[in-house]
Amino acid sequence: MSVSEEIKRLHELHQAGALSDEEFAAAKARLLDKEAPSGISNDITRLRRSQSDRWLGGVCGGLGQITGVEAWIWRLLFVLFVLTFGFGLAIYILLWIFVPEEN
Fold this sequence. Notes:
0% strand, single chain, PspC
């Protein structure tokens, strides 16, 4: 059952009087917290350029820290994107500009 279907079901129970306002709000919050993607969205907000694992701007070191993938693999991916598609350098530069450094 998808999140929207579960919320719809909770709303139906609330409308039928089976759930109070507080119970409905608490159940909806638990459902949304449980189903929130903890990987990508939270990791993107935690993304910082590394000061300790850096060659140029620290972008690959920061990506390595939040994903658990070694920084050299990220560096290799950026080089492969530069050589094959040509846009790896642009992505790296944009990340270098817009991702803040770690404190």
